[in-house]
Amino acid sequence: xxxxxxxxxxxxxxxxxxxxxxxxxxxxxxxxxxxxxxxxxxxxxxxxxxxxxxxxxxxxxxxxxxxxxxxxxxxxxxxxxxxxxxxxxxxxxxxxxxxxxxxxxxxxxxxxxxxxxxxxxxxxxxxxxxxxxxxxxxxxxxxxxxxxxxxxxxxxxxxxxxxxxxxxxxxxxxxxxxxxxxxxxxxxxxxxxxxxxxxxxxxxxxxxxxxxxxxxxxxxxxxxxxxxxxxxxxxxxxxxxxxxxxxxxxxxxxxxxxxxxxxxxxxxxxxxxxxxxxxxxxxxxxxxxxxxxxxxxxxxxxxxxxxxxxxxxxxxxxxxxxxxxxxxxxxxxxxxxxxxxxxxxxxxxxxxxxxxxxxxxxxxxxxxxxxxxxxxxxxxxxxxxxxxxxxxxx
Length: 394
Ligand SMILES: Cc1cc2nc3c(=O)[nH]c(=O)nc-3n(C[C@H](O)[C@H](O)[C@H](O)COP(=O)(O)OP(=O)(O)OC[C@H]3O[C@@H](n4cnc5c(N)ncnc54)[C@H](O)[C@@H]3O)c2cc1C
Hints:
Layout: H1 3-6, H2 16-44, H3 49-58, H4 76-89, H5 91-110, H6 113-125, E1 130-133, E2 149-152, E3 156-167, E4 174-181, E5 190-196, E6 202-204, E7 218-229, E8 233-238, H7 240-276, E9 278-279, E10 282-283, H8 288-316, H9 322-346, H10 357-366, H11 375-389
Parallel strand pairs: 1-4, 2-4
Antiparallel strand pairs: 2-3, 3-7, 4-5, 5-8, 6-7, 9-10
Helix pairs in contact: 2-4, 4-5, 4-7, 4-8, 5-6, 5-7, 7-8, 7-9, 7-10, 8-9, 9-10, 9-11
The structure holds flavin-adenine dinucleotide.
């Protein structure tokens, strides 16, 4: 099924039936195509190129990208629901889904017609793979501290620097790169550059040996005097950091829904195990200690899902939603980590043995508290908003 063929959705009006159709398509794909491959992809830590192409063919990428640019034309709530379904199949696929959404939305929103033709269209068709490169060895949470530079020349730019732990770095065909613009007038000026991987001076490190979400490869990117044309700049010169950070609210809703997908998969596995495993002559599900763990898993899962949908709805309504995106990201990823650990407890010793899905879920959940802004940074965003809204004492 090609969801693009079946839907005529617009960003402004997505019906509940439209959302449900897409969610069902994603759930079916996750169950039939992703889940059966998850253990092997985790073991081999390989990029699932065929699966990725199949997802492109289905029209599952670019959920919030307008249809006129080749996307699905749906809203953030739909994006969150599809993300949860895919991540429930295997979290690393959720990573690809999130990256595609970030980069394709930025290209749709800020790209020139030429940039959309050359980068957005081949991205959505699966012809080209992208990366989103902010982090550097000395600049993680503090992105204003980046030292990659873009120097203006008569015809364009020269890019120097490096990026670290960039998803898709080992396989990408192009990257959106945040760089400091080397100008004496404004020391804070930054820009986003579209950098093709076949440019002279572009190189990459090997895939890192990661703890979880192993099929989603990360690595370093190096830029050694890369000459870029003027039209490599995406959006406005000087406002690059703002452009990239603007995309992160939706990214955080995506990470929160990814965590919900992991959380649901852990609850399903724990419930099945609790009913099947017998000790002291009865299923362990008969013991209240186990029932309470399952109940707490279900309770927080429900809360996470509601927070995600609330943050997504605020984004859809163009509200100032940063605080709510941070709340959803923080709550859902903390809850997923707590409850995947409890789900593993329900499995007893077998939960600790590699090869059992719950062991992989435990490893896959951990990074959700770190990337897309650590949960400490999310709490800073929430607290700042609280303090800004509080009355100042006389
Ligand atoms: C698997 C993986 C995939 C990734 N993918 C990408 C990608 O595709 N693109 C990309 O650009 N980056 C990516 N990253 C990088 C990721 O976004 C950063 O690791 C993250 O933002 C944290 O930065 P850091 O690791 O440098 O930690 P640091 O910023 O050094 O933080 C270390 C610790 O200090 C805390 N801390 C920092 N500042 C404060 C503060 N002001 N107050 C309180 N606590 C603070 C942090 O919360 C953390 O606990 C990825 C990382 C990983 C591991």
